[in-house]
Amino acid sequence: MNIRPKPAEPGRIRYTQVYKYILDRIHRGDWKAHDKLPSVRELAGELQLHRLTVFRAYGLLKEQGYIYVKEKSGYYVSGGRPYTDPAEPEDASNTRSNLTTGGAGGTTFNALARHGTGHLQNTLSEIHQIPAVYSFSQVLIDPNLLPNLFLSDHVKQVFDRYPKLLGTYSSVQGDEELRELLCADMQRKDKLQVSCDELLITTGGQQAIDLLAGVFLRPMDYVLVERPTYSSALDCFRQRGARLLPVEIHRDGYDLDLVEGYMKRHKPRMFYMNPTFHNPTGFIVPASQRKRLVELAERYGCLIVEDDAVHDVYFDAPPPPPLYSYDTEGWVVYLRTFSKYLAPGLRICAVAARAAVMAPLLTAKSLADNGTPLVNQKLFQHCFESERLQQHLEKLRTALQIRRDVMEQALAAGTGWQWYRPQGGLNLWVRLPEGLSSNQLLTEGVRRGLTFVPGTICDPLGEMDDRIRLSFSFKNEAQIREGVHLLVQLADELARGG
Ligand SMILES: Cc1ncc(COP(=O)(O)O)c(C=O)c1O
């Protein structure tokens, strides 16, 4: 088994796709009536395409009256041409540009089927489906660490209080009482300026990422992503035909000059980041960089999607304030899933966004499912507001810290293994001994009932085969010791060529 991102397909871009892309951007307001469009050379350079492909796309747009030409000046957006669905027109000759877009980040633009389907994958989910005794791939809390009895007693109380619960829809945006509660909590604990109208409840963090990708990304848009990062987000962006621009994340954050350079040159639509106990590395982007990142987002019109999935899972000190707390202009969307510490089965995530982002997001949510199930929201609300939650969180932090320590001790038995000690979160990001491949190790692991996440799928470039992500949250101490012992043994066998 070699769980890598699917090999880059020879993505041949038809001029009709470029036509659709330009039309989408006109519709989105990137280019308004009578604005000058980039020259053929500029656009071909930006999209990494052959000039002829762009030339033909402009030709078709002109023929259909969407744009016009000014002698010796260039192409301009027309005034009165009504916008219609930018489906690609039939490419009668089926002629294709014979050039591919490498795309920054090694993401070859897939010759997407119409409307961006045909590129569906979720590699992480495939790994999670492999049955394993020692499952270190799941970023999930061991159910034994959750207050299960309390939760089940609670279910009855909630139904007593709301006898018509099963017969009622939630509003699309989410139950108002729950949003009020979460708002007050975010204001009090995290000093976030957020109102009830600025919160949306989604069915887990994954749905929030998917909705944002659907609303804001069009084929060939650039997206800044951390290297490495949460791979299911990468899969969402790839499925939309976006091009990934990887930004390395280090223990002291990002290279902000590089981020600014990318923003200036490529005008990315979005920067998807996980700056707090980052998945998979555990790094924390320092407070000093957070403010600056928001300024850059404002200056270059790039939406920051701040995924704060394990904000409350810290071991010693709470993390710095979210980037969202510095945002005054609406360039940050903030995702706080609760799947990682309370009742993951309920799939509750709060998304904070200002009006301009919230409005299309609400439409997308209504199209996706018309609102997260009310039962889940009410059960969650009553757990969240109980005193028991605070006690649970404190106990959970201690239990997870112990598991982290146990995993580190077990790993220390192997030679040449290196990792960063995270101060929160659920993972260790481990560098393997020289010459060992994470994918080969996973193949052996699966045979012996052990799984983890190979570095290749967390890397937008598909490299990092010398890294693995090990989650210490799902298995108990004894299983962690046994599993890591087995892992080190398998690595030794592979190193000896066995
Ligand atoms: C960084 C990050 N974002 C989002 C998610 C998805 O969260 P949820 O389980 O709430 O869909 C995960 C899950 O592992 C995650 O690690």
Description:
The protein has 498 residues and is of the alpha/beta class. The chain has 16 helices and 15 strands. The strands form 4 sheets. The chain has a 7-stranded mixed beta sheet, with helices on both faces. Helix 5 packs across helix 12 (374-384), helix 9 (256-266) packs parallel to helix 10 (287-300) and helix 13 packs parallel to helix 16. The chain is globular, with a radius of gyration of 24 Å. The protein binds pyridoxal-5'-phosphate. Pyridoxal-5'-phosphate (PLP) binds next to helix 7. Its cofactor is pyridoxal 5'-phosphate.
What order do the helices and strands come in, and which of them pair?
Elements: H1 15-28, H2 40-47, H3 51-63, E1 67-70, E2 74-77, H4 123-128, E3 134-135, H5 148-161, H6 176-190, E4 199-203, H7 204-216, E5 222-227, H8 231-239, E6 243-248, H9 256-266, E7 270-273, H10 287-300, E8 303-307, E9 332-337, E10 348-352, H11 355-368, H12 374-384, H13 387-411, E11 418-419, E12 427-431, H14 438-447, E13 450-451, E14 453-454, H15 455-458, E15 467-471, H16 477-495
Parallel strand pairs: 3-13, 5-6, 5-7, 7-8, 8-9
Antiparallel strand pairs: 1-2, 4-10, 9-10, 11-12, 12-15, 14-15
Helix pairs in contact: 1-3, 2-3, 5-12, 7-8, 7-11, 9-10, 13-16, 14-16
The structure holds pyridoxal-5'-phosphate.
